[in-house]
Automatic annotation (TrEMBL):
Entries under SUPFAM superfamilies matching the protein: (Trans)glycosidases (SSF51445), beta-Galactosidase/glucuronidase domain (SSF49303), Galactose-binding domain-like (SSF49785), Invasin/intimin cell-adhesion fragments (SSF49373)
Keyword Ion transport: no
Entry similarity comment: Belongs to the glycosyl hydrolase 2 family.
Keyword Signal: yes
One of the GO BP terms on file: carbohydrate metabolic process
Signal sequence region: 1-21
Protein name as catalogued: Beta-galactosidase
UniProt-recorded Gene Ontology molecular function terms: hydrolase activity, hydrolyzing O-glycosyl compounds
Glycoside hydrolase family domain span: 718-820
Length: 825
């Protein structure tokens, strides 16, 4: 990764840094002026923006709402979901005002006579970039990083350059909430004329073993003009030691990269469990003078795919235990925040998840860096649409002209990240059924192979009959299927690759803390409250419940794992409440809800995926006034093989997880035969208030753990728990505070929905809150939110000054909750 210097624009600091390093990277974060709507001449330096709103970038203009049914109302037939007739889709893009034009303006200084490039990590969308009144570049795709050389447009002394960016989101341009504005970072990179351009290195590890690894570094140099170039590169180990050095001088022919090779003995291999990172630090010299220093962060690891056998990392067989995620951060919208991403990954890690698919777009670079550091494999995917439309104003408008440029940027930006183990070229593109669709697929796959020969390519395919027949699936390195679990075996047998990836699986729908009766496995079921049942047995017409995917992974070597739809709930796509079902406006697919609170399903995955901890989770809650005597099934998600259930001391017997054979033997007789392999279920339990106790037994039959769930009494106080108490005073760090309405003994009041108000004092401020209710129209940024199923999350942001931050949650009828966080530099 490149060196980033966070500096103020004070001249003395700027120029004293120059003396030491020729490369300066500056984030443009504060004091942007923002205007929603078209503004004539806003690109001009003399445009008076003093009265415009001041914002900090990353900024998502639409997340502040309000939610409206009329925002981007789409009348469409979603053909992927088998719809034949157009119908009104409400909340498809989150019901938020992302459509329209927005202008951002700021100024920046650079040293005179430096080479200067602007790098945008993503700008939503159709970005027109102006420097000092002149158009510097245009980049239509809102999710991709792009850069433009603005050297020729700068003021002579390098000072007070006006940067203006015009963004435009068309209606009907997305199937989910895309966010709006400069929602990712913008930086100014200023270098000597002879320098390493943006994403200018390519580092591979052609040989990897426990004894040694070879490291090959290709460095592109701009403006070498036939000079003798010297590059001194040190390879730095994860513990900071120089483990290899090369000092080479040579003339490089125009356009050719400068090659250096290294041996690293006894390398620390990168894996999700051991995310070791190395650095290659290269000093570049021209005419005897150092002109650049560039750092490439990397990992040493090998990936392999063997037909009939599956996926191998560092020679070890493993299956992806992955999730798909959209890019939004729930109540923060699309505006990128590292602490929020880290929070997501921390929860997923504890679940045992080891892989992320960036559905269906290029990720923020911060996410990829965190996956390198925290240990997640990534499938990076650029497109939801190729040349044939899914959305009237979707990417298909730009595909022919821009696809290669978009691919190249993505590949160059992320090809040195060890976490990226696979590229996906698209998701459920209608092109898959076109007779010439294979040509488009091969065009994109070839770009991947050309720019990065080290990683396999997949594509999320959903039209199984088409792609098996028309040759499309046979030509993709790794055939990836979205859902259609019942066709995996057929695909495995027909396709030459003899492996199958679950590129998108499950799409089970549930609402945290909501349970519906009777408890049945059902597709496309809808309720008056627009929620789905927390028993994890409901899915859409095209999808399934998790157990089917678990069985495919367990029963066949050649299934190389799965990416569950989705890790987190996201804004938009409120299936099954997507057709004229306002106010539903966010998804129910997440294993974790929009407030970052795990649903029950989290523990089902954890019980199978996280082998380092024990899981014993009981559902539903046990506070059902009015259900006395009614059948209220109890499910237990656990890694233990056996458990016994007691209600108020009365045993309901032991249940054990069935083997594959035992489960097959009862198929047809028991609708939940497959579930009995992965869940312990007591289907006939009359509700009586009191205590549910589950005692779990290990494989040797010994009591291992017990769990008790009690009927809650009257709401008494708010319990507040922060995910972390020590923050960094950088103006960005976040604490996620869970607020629970509990009785006097601390039992959750599971149906409470009272309004909670927040105050934050001291060295921080209130940032946002969410409750995970997909029908809630409460605005995230206002310091109040009703509880949903008794809980919500409030997010507090540290200021730049260190100190104490006091958070308080208050609600009518219960005692308030208070906690103190600490922030330091
Ligand atoms: C898939 C699609 C995803 C999402 C999901 C919902 O078909 O690839 O983007 O729409 O369905 O189940």
């Amino acid at each position: 990764m490149k060196k980033i210097l966070f500096i103020s624009f004070s001249c003395c600091i700027l120029f004293s840094l120059i003396a030491k390093a020729q490369r300066i990277e500056t984030l443009l974060e504060k004091n942007w002026k923002f205007t929603k709507g078209e503004v004539a001449e806003a690109m001009k330096p003399e445009f008076d923006d003093r009265k415009r709103e001041t914002v900090t970038v990353p900024h998502d203009w639409a997340i502040f709402g309000p939610f409206e049914r009329s925002n981007d109302l789409q009348e469409v037939a979603v053909t992927q979901n088998f719809e034949k007739k157009a119908s009104v889709k409400t909340g498809r893009t989150g019901g938020l005002p992302y459509v329209g034009i927005g202008w951002y303006r700021t100024t920046f200084d650079v040293p005179a006579d430096q080479q200067t490039t602007l790098v945008f990590d993503g700008a939503m969308s159709e970005a027109r970039v102006y420097v000092n009144g002149q158009e510097a570049c245009f980049w239509p795709f809102g999710y991709n990083s792009f850069h433009c050389d603005v050297t020729g447009l700068l003021n002579k002394d390098g000072k007070n350059n006006t940067l203006a960016v015009r963004l435009e989101n068309k209606p009907q341009s997305s199937r989910w909430y895309p966010g709006a504005g400069l929602y990712r970072n913008v930086r100014v990179v200023s270098t000597d004329k002879v320098h390493v351009p943006v994403w200018g290195t390519q580092l591979t590890t052609p040989h990897v073993s426990d004894e040694y690894a070879s490291v090959r570094l290709l460095t592109t140099i701009a403006n070498d003009e036939g000079k003798d170039i010297r590059i001194v590169t040190e390879i730095i180990s994860p513990d900071g030691k120089v483990v290899a050095t090369k000092d080479n001088t040579r003339k490089i022919n125009h356009g050719q990269p400068f090659e250096q090779n290294f041996l690293v003995n006894a390398p620390c291999l990168w894996s999700p469990e051991t995310p070791y990172l190395y650095k290659a630090v290269s000093k570049v010299y021209a005419d005897g003078k150092q002109t650049d220093e560039y750092t490439t962060r990397f990992g040493i690891r090998s990936i392999g795919i063997i037909a009939d056998k599956g996926f191998f990392l560092n020679g070890k067989h493993r299956k992806f235990q992955g999730v798909c995620n959209h890019h939004d951060l729930g109540p923060l919208g699309a505006a990128i925040n590292v602490a929020a991403l880290r929070r997501q990954l921390t929860l997923l890690k504890d679940m045992g998840c080891d892989a992320i698919r960036t559905a269906h777009n290029m990720p923020a670079p911060e996410l990829v860096q965190l996956c390198d550091e925290m240990g997640f494999m990534m499938m990076v995917e650029p497109f939801d649409e190729w040349d044939i439309a899914k959305c009237e104003n979707g990417y298909h408008r730009y595909f022919n002209e821009w696809a290669e440029r978009d691919m190249v940027n993505m590949l160059h930006q992320f090809r040195n990240n060890p976490c990226v183990v696979m590229w996906s070229i698209g998701n459920e593109v209608p092109t898959q059924c076109s007779p010439v669709g294979y040509k488009v697929a091969s065009f994109l796959q070839d770009i991947c192979h050309r720019e990065d020969p080290t990683r396999p390519v997949t594509c999320g395919m959903d039209q199984v009959s088409c792609v098996l027949k028309n040759g499309f699936a046979a030509m993709i390195d790794v055939p990836g299927f979205n859902y259609r679990a019942h066709r995996y075996l057929e695909a495995y047998e027909l396709l030459p690759q003899n492996i199958v990836l679950g590129s998108e699986t499950s799409s089970t729908v549930s609402s945290r803390g909501v349970y519906k009766f009777p408890v049945e496995k059902r597709g496309d079921v809808k309720y008056d409250d627009h929620q789905s049942s927390g028993y994890d047995l409901e899915h859409c017409s095209w999808s399934n419940v998790p157990d089917e995917d678990f069985a495919l992974a367990d029963d066949y070597d050649w299934t190389i794992g799965q990416f569950v739809w989705t890790g987190f709930d996201y804004l938009g796509e409120p299936s099954p409440y997507d057709t004229d079902a306002w106010p539903s406006h966010s998804s129910l697919f997440g294993i974790i809800d929009l407030a970052s609170l795990p649903k029950d399903r989290y523990y089902l995955y954890r019980s199978l995926w996280n082998k380092n901890v024990n899981t014993l989770h009981v559902l539903p809650h046990w506070t059902w006034p009015g259900r006395e005597g009614e059948n209220t099934p109890v499910f237990v998600y656990t890694n233990y093989p056996t458990a016994e259930l007691f209600v108020n001391g009365k045993s309901y017997g032991k249940q054990h997880k069935l083997t594959a054979e035992e489960s097959k033997a009862i198929q047809g007789k028991d609708a939940l035969a497959l579930q009995r392999r992965y869940r312990l279920m007591w289907m006939d339990v009359p509700y009586e208030p009191g205590e549910v106790k589950v005692i779990a037994y290990d494989a040797s039959g010994k009591i291992a753990e017990e769990k008790v769930v009690r009927t809650a009494g009257k709401p008494h106080h708010l319990e507040v728990v922060a995910d972390r108490s020590q923050l960094t005073a950088d103006g960005k760090d976040l604490a996620y505070i869970t607020v629970r309405v509990v009785d006097k003994d601390g039992n959750l009041c599971p149906s409470d929905s009272r309004l909670v108000n927040f105050t934050v004092k001291g060295a921080g401020h209130y940032r946002a809150a969410a409750n995970g209710d997909a029908t809630s129209l409460d605005l995230f940024h206002l310091p109040k939110m009703p509880a949903f199923s008794g809980q919500l999350t409030a997010i507090v942001q540290a200021a730049e000054q260190a100190g104490e931050i006091v958070f308080e949650a208050k609600a009518k009828g219960v005692k308030s909750g208070k906690l103190t966080l600490y922030s330091s530099k």
